[in-house]
C-alpha cells in the first residue's frame, strides 16, 4: 500500500508577529528562586530592624541604670557640709553651689529615668510596628507568589508526564509498525501535551505577573522601611540630646549618617547585584507557539487528512458537523472541534480502520461500518458494530476522504449508501443527477446500510464483476491532489 499524503504540515498554533526562538517546554529554572530571594531580603530587613530594637532597648536599660547611679552620686553631697558654718548659707555662696549641685544631680537622675521611659514607650514601638509589618510582608509573599510557584511546578509536572508518554508511544509506534490503542495514539497524546502546556504557560505567566507586582511593591515597601527607620531614629535623637551635651555630637553623627541615606540607594544596589535573577518587566510573556518539545513533529503525530464532515445521527437521523482526523496509526477519530486549548482533546468516536468496512462513495456521501474503540480495549470488546454515515461538503472532498480511508480499511465493498443511485465509472459523481442530489441534499435520508448480502442495482452488476471494489468519483477527483480534501490544497479541508 502506498504511503498516504499528509493533509497538514503542522499542528494548529497561535503565532506571534515577533516570534522568538523556540523555547523549552519545561524550563530548567527554579520557579521559587525569585520568591526565596525576596524572602531572604525581608529576613535581612527584619534582622536590621531587630538590631535597632535591641539597640533602643539596651539604651533604655542603660539610662535606667544611670538614673540609679546618679542617685548614688547624689548621696555624696546629700548631707550638709561639715563645718558648714564657715560658709554663707545664702544663695551665691559655697553652700548655694552645693545646693545647685544637689539639684542638678537630682535632675540628671530624673532625666535618665524620663529618657528610659520615653525610649520604651515612644521610640521602641516604632521599630516593633515596623518589625511586624516586615513579618506580615513575608507571610503575604509566601501565600501569594509562593503559592503561584507551587502551581507552576504542578502544571510543569503534568506537562512533563505527558511529554514522556508521547515519547514512549512514539517509540512504540516505530517498533510495532503503528499497532497502538486509540488512547495511545501519538496524535492524541500530542494534543494532550498541547492542552497541558497551555495550562502550564497560563500558570507561568500568572506567577510571572505576580512576581513583577511583588518587585514593584518591594521598591515602595523598602522606601517605607527606610522612612520609618529615619523617623524613629529622629525621635531617638530628640530624646537622647536631652542628656549630656557631650553625647550629642556622637549621636548626631550617627543619626546624620542615617538621614543621608537616599530612599532608593539600597534598592538600586539590590537591582544591580541580582539582575540575573529578577524578572525584566519589558520581556515578552511565553506563548505556546514559541515552545518546542520532544517528538513534536514525529510522523505518527501528523494526520493523513483532517477536516469537518457531517455524520448522520443514530436517533435523530439528522446530520451533525464534527471535526475528523485519519492518523498514521489507522484510526478515524471524531472530535467536537480542532481546538487543543479549550478542552482536553479526547475523541468522541474512534474507529480502527483495519477492523472496519467501507462502502462505495456516492456524491458527497459514504458509509463506514465498525466498532467505536475510543473507550479503550475493554470498552471496545463490549461495543457493537455500527454503520456510520458520513457526508462531505463536496463530492471532491468525499472522494478524498474515501480514498485515504480505503487504503487503511480492512474491507472495501461496492455497496452504495442506501437510497442512493449508483454511478458508472464513466459518469462518476459528475453526473447531473448525482451532483445535484449531493450538493443540494434533495435525496431522502438513507436507512442504515446493509454491508453483507445486499444485491447491487442492475447498473452496478452490469458494470462491475461481483466482489470487485468500486472506485467512484474518478472523473470528479481528477483535478484533486492525492490525500487532499480541498481541490488544489493538499491534505486539509
Automatic annotation (TrEMBL):
Keyword check for Phosphoprotein: yes
InterPro entries documented for this protein: AH/BAR_dom_sf (IPR027267), BAR_4 (IPR046868), PH-like_dom_sf (IPR011993), PH_domain (IPR001849), SLM1/RGC1-like_PH (IPR046869), Slm1_PH (IPR043453)
UniProt xrefs under Pfam families: BAR_4, PH_20
CDD domains: PH_Slm1 (cd13311)
Biased composition (Polar residues): 1-19, 421-436, 448-460, 468-482
Segments for region (Disordered): 1-28, 413-493
Superkingdom, natural source: Eukaryota
Assigned keywords, A-Z: Phosphoprotein
PANTHER family: CYTOSKELETAL SIGNALING PROTEIN SLM1
Name this protein carries in UniProt: PH domain-containing protein
Amino acid at each position: 500500500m502506498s504511503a498516504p499524503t499528509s493533509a497538514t504540515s503542522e499542528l494548529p498554533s497561535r503565532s506571534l508577529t515577533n516570534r522568538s526562538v523556540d523555547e523549552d517546554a519545561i524550563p530548567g529554572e527554579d520557579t521559587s528562586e525569585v520568591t526565596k530571594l525576596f524572602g531572604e531580603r525581608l529576613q535581612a530587613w527584619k534582622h536590621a530592624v531587630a538590631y535597632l530594637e535591641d539597640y533602643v532597648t539596651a539604651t533604655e536599660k542603660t539610662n535606667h541604670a544611670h538614673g540609679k547611679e546618679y542617685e548614688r552620686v547624689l548621696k555624696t553631697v546629700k548631707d550638709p557640709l561639715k563645718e558648714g558654718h564657715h560658709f554663707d548659707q545664702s544663695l551665691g555662696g559655697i553652700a548655694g553651689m552645693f545646693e545647685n549641685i544637689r539639684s542638678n544631680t537630682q535632675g540628671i537622675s530624673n532625666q535618665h529615668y524620663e529618657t528610659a521611659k520615653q525610649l520604651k514607650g515612644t521610640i521602641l514601638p516604632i521599630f516593633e510596628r515596623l518589625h511586624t509589618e516586615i513579618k506580615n510582608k513575608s507571610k503575604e509573599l509566601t501565600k501569594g507568589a509562593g503559592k503561584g510557584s507551587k502551581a507552576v511546578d504542578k502544571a510543569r509536572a503534568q506537562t512533563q508526564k505527558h511529554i514522556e508518554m508521547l515519547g514512549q508511544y512514539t517509540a512504540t509506534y516505530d517498533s510495532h509498525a503503528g499497532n497502538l490503542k486509540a488512547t495511545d495514539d501519538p496524535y492524541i497524546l500530542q494534543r494532550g501535551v498541547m492542552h497541558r502546556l497551555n495550562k502550564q504557560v497560563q500558570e507561568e505567566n500568572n506567577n510571572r505577573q505576580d512576581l513583577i507586582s511583588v518587585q514593584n511593591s518591594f521598591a515602595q515597601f523598602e522606601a517605607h522601611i527606610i522612612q520609618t527607620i529615619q523617623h524613629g531614629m529622629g525621635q531617638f535623637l530628640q530624646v537622647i540630646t536631652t542628656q549630656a551635651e557631650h553625647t550629642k555630637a556622637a549621636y548626631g553623627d550617627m543619626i546624620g549618617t542615617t538621614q543621608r541615606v537616599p530612599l532608593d540607594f539600597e534598592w538600586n544596589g539590590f537591582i544591580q547585584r541580582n539582575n540575573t535573577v529578577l524578572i525584566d518587566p519589558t520581556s515578552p510573556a511565553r506563548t505556546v507557539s514559541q515552545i518546542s518539545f520532544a517528538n513534536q513533529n514525529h510522523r505518527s503525530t501528523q494526520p493523513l487528512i483532517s477536516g469537518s464532515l457531517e455524520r448522520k445521527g443514530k436517533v435523530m437521523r439528522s446530520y451533525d458537523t464534527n471535526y475528523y482526523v485519519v492518523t498514521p496509526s489507522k484510526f478515524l477519530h471524531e472530535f467536537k472541534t480542532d481546538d487543543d486549548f479549550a478542552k482536553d482533546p479526547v475523541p468522541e468516536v474512534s474507529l480502527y480502520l483495519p477492523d472496519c468496512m467501507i462502502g462505495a462513495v456516492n456524491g458527497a456521501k459514504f458509509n463506514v461500518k465498525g466498532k467505536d474503540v475510543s473507550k479503550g480495549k475493554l470498552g471496545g470488546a463490549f461495543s457493537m458494530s455500527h454503520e456510520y454515515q458520513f457526508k462531505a461538503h463536496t463530492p471532491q472532498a468525499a472522494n478524498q476522504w474515501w480514498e485515504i480511508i480505503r487504503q487503511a480499511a480492512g474491507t472495501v465493498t461496492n455497496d452504495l449508501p442506501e437510497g442512493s443511485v449508483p454511478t458508472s465509472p464513466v459518469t462518476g459523481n459528475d453526473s447531473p443527477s448525482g451532483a445535484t442530489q449531493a450538493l443540494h441534499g434533495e435525496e431522502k435520508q438513507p436507512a442504515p446500510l446493509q454491508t453483507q448480502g445486499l444485491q447491487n442495482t442492475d447498473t452496478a452488476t452490469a458494470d462491475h464483476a461481483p466482489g470487485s471494489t468500486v472506485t467512484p468519483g474518478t472523473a470528479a477527483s481528477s483535478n484533486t491532489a492525492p490525500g487532499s480534501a480541498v481541490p488544489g490544497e493538499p491534505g486539509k479541508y
